[in-house]
């Protein structure tokens, strides 16, 4: 690889780490007499629908930016080295990595270089070269720049497998404060177009299993409460490019991302916005990124504050409840408690608040009620329902079925018998669940000592001026391609 291209790759891969669609591997190996080498810059892991792990080249087309978003390391006012790939350089680099079996796909994003449309045109040219000239058939995820022309959104959708446009901040007030050049209408208009086009080609599958039969409304606004409201879009008829029979548009759908802890919103606000995105646009998934401060600003958390990784984890658990377990965001909070419990997962917290629903008789409740029992997952609930068609489920069967009895025993009865040890008392159950959670945490720590993680969630950098460990701007990306 030419030194100039390697330098560009290093800088632009570092800038691309701020999206949480997949996690960076950080593996670099030189050939020691065998076949093949690995490059750590920009190589990251994602997952296909069948669970297979694939490697993606995650990179920016350019880190030159005309925007000055307070939270972003690529913002206009930040003094960092700037560079950009030419479309052919990026296409050749991607194809070269693909031929050497380094990667199976590309995740392409970019700062706003010049204008949104100019940036998008160069992204389209890069992907066109890959698909048409190099006959690249691998996976491509393209990041949409807010405010680009609908024709460019359409062209990117024809070339990429998945599209995404980041909301970043879950409230209009936060967006106006941290990213004043980004307007809600510029974000939601491409989302609306993508959803409408997917509906037109009848390929809109939506998030999880709880939204499969719920129609989307691509012309609807995210209205109400503390979420976004777009009055200028209300009732406006969509006029987007149409597909021919031979064309396929973004077959893997669209995703989005929100930061956690940068703008002061509660977990309730974040999840209500996520829920409305699922209902309105049927986005495939909403990703959460714990904000790691590197910017000294009065409108951002202190440089020495810790990234809210535990909070990010609880939000992902709650998001799973929305997508696969039939929960609504409003059920997970009360008027006084607008943040998730940091000590227990949201499903247990909900059960303890609604203890009058428990214990549930495992042989009588509906499938939807089974999903509400802590320790019972979707697959174990399906197995219980199938077993009940043949005979009653016995308590001894539950572990084999996949139920986590350490949690579930406090919330169920089996053939009329309660196995929780004493009466259903929320305070006692909470104490026992905390012990269980601590035991699982200790197991993870022991496992971590025996098997060092290959893919740390955070890149730690040594700050030579203070002697303290500092984080990179965002986590090194969780989640995956479905």
Main attributes?
single chain; about 475 residues; alpha/beta; TIM Barrel; eight-stranded mixed sheet; three-stranded mixed sheet; 14 helices; about 10% strand; globular; disordered C terminus
Describe this entry's structure for a reader.
The chain has 482 residues and is α/β, with parallel strands linked by helices. It folds into 2 domains: 3-30 and 37-332, TIM Barrel, CATH 3.20.20.70; 359-450, no CATH class. 35% of the residues lie in helices and 11% in strands. It contains 14 helices and 13 strands. The strands form 3 sheets. It has an 8-stranded mixed sheet with strand order 1-2-3-4-5-6-7-8. A hairpin with a 5-residue loop joins strand 2 (43-47) and strand 3. The longest helix is centred in the last third of the chain and has 25 residues, at 426-450. It is globular, with a radius of gyration of 24 Å. Mean pLDDT is 82; it is low at 23-29, 33-40, 218-226, 229-236 and 451-482.
Give a short synopsis of this structure:
Helix content is about 35%, strand content about 10%. The protein contains 14 helices and 13 strands. α7 runs parallel beside α8.
Topology (SSEs and partners):
Layout: H1 3-15, E1 23-24, E2 43-47, E3 53-60, H2 87-99, E4 105-109, H3 116-133, E5 139-143, H4 150-159, E6 162-164, H5 172-178, H6 184-200, E7 254-260, H7 267-281, E8 285-290, H8 309-324, H9 346-353, E9 360-361, H10 367-370, H11 378-388, H12 395-401, H13 405-408, E10 412-414, E11 417-418, H14 426-450, E12 460-462, E13 469-471
Parallel strand pairs: 3-4, 4-5, 5-6, 6-7, 7-8, 9-10
Antiparallel strand pairs: 1-2, 2-3, 10-11, 12-13
């Amino acid at each position: 690889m030419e030194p100039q291209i390697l330098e560009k790759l290093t800088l632009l891969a570092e800038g691309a780490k701020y999206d949480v669609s997949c996690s960076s591997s950080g593996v670099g190996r030189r050939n020691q007499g065998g076949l093949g080498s690995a490059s750590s810059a920009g190589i990251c892991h994602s997952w296909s629908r069948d669970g297979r792990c694939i490697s993606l080249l995650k990179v920016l087309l350019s880190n030159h930016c005309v925007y000055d978003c307070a939270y972003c390391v690529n913002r206009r006012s930040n003094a960092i080295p700037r560079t950009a790939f030419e479309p052919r350089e990026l296409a050749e680099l991607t194809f070269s990595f693909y031929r050497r079996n380094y990667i199976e796909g590309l995740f392409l994003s970019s700062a706003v270089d010049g204008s949104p449309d100019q940036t998008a045109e160069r992204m389209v040219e890069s992907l066109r070269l890959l698909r048409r000239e190099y006959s690249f058939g691998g996976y491509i995820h393209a990041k949409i720049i807010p405010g680009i022309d609908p024709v460019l959104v359409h062209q990117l959708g024809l070339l990429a497998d998945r599209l995404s446009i980041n909301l970043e901040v879950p409230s209009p007030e936060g967006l106006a404060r941290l990213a004043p050049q980004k307007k809600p209408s510029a974000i939601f208009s491409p989302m609306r177009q993508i959803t409408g086009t997917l509906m037109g080609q009848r390929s809109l599958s939506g998030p999880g299993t709880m939204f499969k039969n719920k129609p989307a409304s691509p012309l609807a606004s995210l209205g109400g409460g503390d979420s976004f409201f777009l009055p200028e879009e209300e009732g406006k008829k969509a006029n987007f490019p149409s597909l021919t029979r031979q064309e396929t548009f973004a077959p893997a759908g669209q995703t989005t991302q929100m930061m956690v802890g940068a703008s002061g919103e509660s977990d309730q606000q974040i999840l209500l916005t996520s829920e409305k995105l699922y209902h309105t646009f049927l986005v495939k998934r909403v990703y959460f990124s714990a904000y790691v401060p590197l910017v000294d600003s009065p409108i951002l958390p202190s440089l020495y504050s810790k990234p809210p990784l535990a909070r990010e984890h609880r939000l992902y658990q709650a998001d799973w409840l929305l997508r696969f377990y039939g929960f609504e965001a409003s059920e997970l909070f009360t008027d006084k408690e607008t943040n998730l419990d940091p000590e227990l997962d949201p499903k247990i917290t909900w059960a303890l608040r609604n203890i009058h629903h428990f214990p549930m008789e495992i042989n009588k409740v509906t499938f939807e009620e089974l999903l509400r029992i802590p320790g019972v997952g979707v697959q174990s609930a399906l197995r219980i329902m199938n077993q009940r068609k043949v005979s009653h489920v016995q308590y001894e069967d539950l572990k084999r079925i996949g139920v986590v009895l350490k949690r579930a025993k406090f919330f169920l009865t089996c053939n009329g018998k309660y196995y929780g040890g004493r009466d259903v008392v929320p305070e006692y159950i909470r104490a026992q669940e905390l012990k269980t959670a601590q035991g699982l945490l200790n197991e993870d720590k022991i496992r971590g000592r025996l098997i060092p993680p290959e893919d740390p969630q955070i890149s730690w950098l040594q700050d030579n001026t203070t002697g303290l460990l500092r984080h990179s701007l965002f986590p090194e990306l969780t989640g995956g391609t479905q």
